[in-house]
């Protein structure tokens, strides 16, 4: 169907068209000079030493856990209220995800108190998710990591441009992982980035991204080698020049687009504040620290989600759910056992959260239309 107000939309224009055309005319499509330019620009933007473009955010997460030495018998503490790739990337390494609960209906990020309670002698790492673009409370999480000699991976798929205590999300832990999927604040269709300040980890990431090879096709094209060695097990997680060209342009407009998202979220919060059956998480987080990737609301227990979403659909407003809890998926119950009831806050939100439209191209009239539709849907 055609939505009056879609859930998300891509902010792209002539600059992206021209950048892609330049790549096509260059006749070099695989990872090369444009990717190097994108990596350098992204690293400068974050204030981090190393940035490596990859094929998608899941690849970034897989590499992150692999280069940290996460393996069979290890445990990694992570939230269940996330896209399944976060937990899958732990399984790819043979380790076990240990799910921790969120802060509550007003804070959909993983709770540091819950993390602390889940640490065992087998715990090797903590993988946080900056849900919706709102930063986790990283200070106590990093203290837990230091106290127990754990590594920290930041799943920053939602949070490009977000910050915590003045430091960009993705640069606080040992490794940061970004997604540039089609609905993200910075979009290349598919694609991702993995960043770190650790020189040793950076070298591992560099080789693991491309089959464990010591030189790339672009290196040999420039005459920097004729052959290569394979020094470790690696993967084909390279990106393309087309994706990197889009990323360079998208990065230039990221701050402006995130600021527009912030203003939209402010309008949402003001208009929805009086609806008793709807709670807007992360209250007070309109100070620019968030990237405002999505706008989640949590419905009261007496407002059926299916009917609420159907009513919005009738009015042409697309909605979604972020997320069905990972620990309740059939595969994870088969793997880890039926743990329903173990994460009560996550499970409540998993049953009652609805994501409303949010993208830079929304007009103020669009936001007002959605808010009116939400009020009508909530009143039955």
From TrEMBL:
CDD domains found in the cross-reference section: AHBA_syn (cd00616)
InterPro entries tied to this protein: DegT/StrS_aminotransferase (IPR000653), PyrdxlP-dep_Trfase (IPR015424), PyrdxlP-dep_Trfase_major (IPR015421), PyrdxlP-dep_Trfase_small (IPR015422)
Domain of life: Archaea
Any one GO MF annotation of this record: pyridoxal phosphate binding
Any one biological process term the GO annotation gives: polysaccharide biosynthetic process
Keyword terms: Aminotransferase, Pyridoxal phosphate, Transferase
UniProt xrefs under Pfam families: DegT_DnrJ_EryC1 (PF01041)
Family statement drawn from the similarity comment of this UniProt entry: Belongs to the DegT/DnrJ/EryC1 family.
Protein name as annotated: DegT/DnrJ/EryC1/StrS aminotransferase
Biological source species: Methanoculleus sediminis
């Amino acid at each position: 169907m055609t939505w009056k107000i879609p859930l998300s939309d891509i902010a792209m224009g002539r600059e992206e068209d021209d950048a892609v055309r330049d790549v096509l005319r260059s006749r070099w499509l695989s990872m090369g000079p444009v990717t190097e330019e994108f990596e350098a620009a992204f690293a400068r933007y974050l204030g981090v030493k190393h940035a490596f473009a990859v094929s998608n955010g899941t690849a970034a997460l897989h590499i992150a856990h692999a280069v940290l030495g996460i393996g069979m018998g290890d445990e990694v503490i992570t939230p269940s209220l996330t896209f399944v790739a976060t937990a899958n990337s732990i399984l790819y390494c043979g380790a076990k995800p240990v799910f921790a609960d969120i802060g509550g209906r007003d804070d959909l990020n993983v709770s540091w108190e819950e993390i602390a309670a889940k640490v065992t002698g087998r715990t090797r790492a903590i993988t946080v998710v900056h849900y919706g673009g709102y930063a986790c409370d990283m200070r106590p999480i990093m203290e837990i990591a230091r106290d127990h000699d754990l590594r920290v991976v930041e799943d920053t798929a939602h949070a490009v441009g977000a910050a915590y205590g003045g430091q960009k999300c993705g640069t606080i832990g040992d490794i940061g992982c970004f997604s540039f999927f089609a609905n993200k604040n910075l979009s290349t269709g598919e694609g991702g980035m993995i960043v770190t300040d650790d020189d040793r980890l950076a070298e591992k990431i560099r080789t693991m991204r491309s089959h464990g090879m010591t030189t790339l096709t672009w290196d040999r094209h420039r005459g920097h080698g004729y052959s290569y060695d394979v020094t470790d097990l690696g993967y084909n997680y390279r990106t393309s020049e087309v994706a990197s060209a889009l990323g360079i342009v998208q990065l230039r407009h990221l701050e402006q687009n995130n600021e527009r998202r912030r203003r939209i979220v402010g309008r949402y919060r003001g208009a929805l504040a009086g609806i008793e059956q709807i709670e807007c998480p992360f209250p007070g987080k309109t100070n620019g620290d968030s990237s405002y990737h999505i706008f989640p609301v949590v419905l009261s227990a007496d407002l059926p989600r299916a009917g609420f979403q159907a009513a919005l659909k009738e009015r042409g407003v697309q909605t979604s759910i972020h997320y069905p809890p990972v620990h309740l998926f059939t595969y994870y119950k088969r793997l880890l056992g039926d743990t329903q009831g173990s994460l009560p806050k996550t499970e409540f939100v998993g049953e009652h959260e609805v994501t409303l439209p949010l993208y830079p191209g929304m007009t103020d009239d669009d936001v007002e239309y959605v808010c009116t539709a939400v009020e009508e849907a909530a009143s039955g």
